[in-house]
């Protein structure tokens, strides 16, 4: 038996999620067949908004224990037109990220060969970023409440949490990530001029952790000014770290600047590796195109490649991305990238391209 055998939990969940997850399982099976140096076992979990509508829960009792037995989770997207988004998000995605301590959310972005950026001056190679999003606290920690419901004086709070522990671990992860990339360049996004408690702690801890990484060059940007810099001077950026909320917004901007939200992946990592990490495309369930066979599977292909890299199969992941980029370069793309191919055509083309890469 092979040493490198990984068990993957797949969970397409809602909308186009199952379509793009199935497509990437097809590509990974091809990859394993051609590569021969590692094995993947897939187990599908059918938790979705339908489960919620039938049972009142997204995750059945004992579900997290079953999930925890796997080496990684490949997730699609959650969200249905008839379920409020805060119920679906907290019911499934955050209900996995938080107990599994997936505190680092990593979002690489680049301009693929054969695709174009809406930025007039940016070409392939000019925009190559990794955004690291704090994934456990900040504005999405779940602290806050609502009182005096329905009254004119109704009040709601959403408290942003910044703990020294939480900030330190994400800063260390960000500096390590920057150090591993050729440019060794990190931009710390903040808003400490206006938010004078949490964000000032954020800045102070960044400066402390920076001392452990003398070879990493770093700078600090206010989040509003950061949006301008991303648009006007994309080449000046490499690795970026930001709070849960700031990075959520900046990474959608990043994906749009790179060409489409249909290509961008994200990893929810437990860097301690005590729990499985979860990998997903950044897009949502896209009910406007569900079932039409036109969803761009490239984001989930890149997602799968990120998962394989995390598991230690970096060479195979690189080959998979070579095949994906060869396909975009040949112009076999879905509508969001200006092409006319469907999900299946793109997927089959990647499988064929893989044969050439091996
Ligand atoms: P969305 O990402 O689902 O769709 C935005 C637009 O991009 C749509 O026009 C859609 O057709 C297009 N699009 C998205 N992915 C695409 C792909 N792979 N190929 C081609 N076109 C693609 O965002 P939206 O519409 O705001 O949200 C829909 C649902 O998804 C909501 O319920 C939302 O809460 C949920 N959502 C879930 C996420 C997750 O599970 N992590 C992330 C974002 C949204
Ligand atoms: Mg988002």
Decide which structural class fits the backbone: alpha/beta
Shape: globular
Uncertain runs are none
Largest sheet report? 10 strands, mixed
- H/E topology pattern: EHEHHEHEEEEHEHEHEHEEHHH
**CATH architecture field of the largest domain:** 3-Layer(aba) Sandwich
Walkthrough of the structure:
Helix 1 (17-35) runs parallel beside helix 11 and helix 5 packs across helix 6 (198-210). The protein has a ten-stranded mixed β-sheet, sandwiched between helices. The relative contact order is 0.17. The radius of gyration is 20 Å and the shape is globular. The two termini are 22 Å apart. It has 358 residues and is α/β, with parallel strands linked by helices. The mean pLDDT is 95. The protein has helices at 17-35, 49-55, 63-68, 85-97, 164-180, 198-210, 223-232, 244-258, 298-311, 314-329, 343-357; strands spanning 5-13, 39-44, 72-77, 104-110, 128-134, 144-147, 155-158, 185-190, 217-222, 239-242, 265-269, 277-281. It folds into two domains: 1-103 and 267-358, Isopropylmalate Dehydrogenase (3-Layer(aba) Sandwich); 117-258, Isopropylmalate Dehydrogenase, CATH 3.40.718.10. The longest helix is centred in the first third of the chain and has 19 residues, at 17-35. It contains eleven helices and twelve strands. The protein binds 1,4-dihydronicotinamide adenine dinucleotide and magnesium ion. Residues 248, 252 line the site of magnesium ion.
SSE order and pairing:
Elements: E1 5-13, H1 17-35, E2 39-44, H2 49-55, H3 63-68, E3 72-77, H4 85-97, E4 104-110, E5 128-134, E6 144-147, E7 155-158, H5 164-180, E8 185-190, H6 198-210, E9 217-222, H7 223-232, E10 239-242, H8 244-258, E11 265-269, E12 277-281, H9 298-311, H10 314-329, H11 343-357
Parallel strand pairs: 1-2, 1-3, 3-12, 5-10, 8-9, 8-10
Antiparallel strand pairs: 4-5, 4-11, 6-7, 11-12
Magnesium ion (MG) is lined by residues 248, 252.
């Amino acid at each position: 038996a092979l040493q490198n055998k990984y068990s993957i939990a797949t969970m397409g969940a809602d909308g186009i999620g199952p379509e793009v997850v199935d497509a990437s399982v097809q590509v990974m099976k091809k990859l394993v067949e051609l590569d021969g140096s590692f094995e993947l076992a897939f187990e599908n979990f059918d938790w979705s908004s339908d489960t919620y509508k039938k049972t009142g829960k997204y995750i059945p009792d004992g579900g997290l224990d079953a999930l925890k037995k796997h080496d990684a989770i490949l997730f699609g997207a959650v969200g249905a037109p008839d379920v409020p988004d805060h119920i679906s998000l907290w019911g499934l995605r955050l209900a996995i990220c938080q107990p599994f301590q997936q505190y680092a959310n990593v979002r690489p972005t680049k301009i693929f060969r054969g695709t174009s950026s809406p930025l007039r001056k940016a070409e392939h190679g000019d925009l190559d970023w990794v955004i690291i999003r704090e994934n456990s606290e900040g504005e999405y920690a779940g602290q806050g409440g609502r009182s005096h419901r329905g009254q004119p004086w109704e009040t709601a709070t959403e408290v942003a949490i910044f703990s020294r522990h939480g900030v330190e671990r994400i800063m260390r992860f960000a500096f390590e990530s920057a150090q591993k990339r050729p440019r060794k360049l990190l931009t710390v996004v903040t808003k400490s001029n206006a938010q004078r408690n949490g964000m000032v702690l954020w800045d102070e801890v960044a400066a402390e952790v920076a001392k452990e990484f003398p070879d990493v060059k770093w700078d600090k940007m206010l989040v509003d000014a950061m949006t301008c810099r991303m648009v006007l001077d994309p080449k000046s950026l490499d690795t970026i770290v930001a709070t849960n909320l700031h990075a959520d917004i900046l990474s959608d901007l990043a994906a749009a600047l790179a060409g489409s939200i249909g290509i961008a992946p994200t990893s929810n990592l437990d860097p301690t590796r005590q729990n499985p990490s979860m990998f997903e495309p950044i897009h949502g369930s896209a009910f406007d195109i569900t079932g039409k066979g036109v969803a761009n599977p490239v984001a989930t292909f890149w997602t799968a490649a990120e998962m394989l890299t995390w598991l230690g199969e970096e060479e195979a992941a690189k080959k998979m991305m070579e095949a994906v980029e060869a396909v975009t370069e040949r112009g076999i793309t879905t509508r969001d990238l200006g092409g006319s191919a469907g999900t299946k055509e793109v997927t089959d083309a990647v499988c064929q391209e893989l044969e050439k890469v091996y």
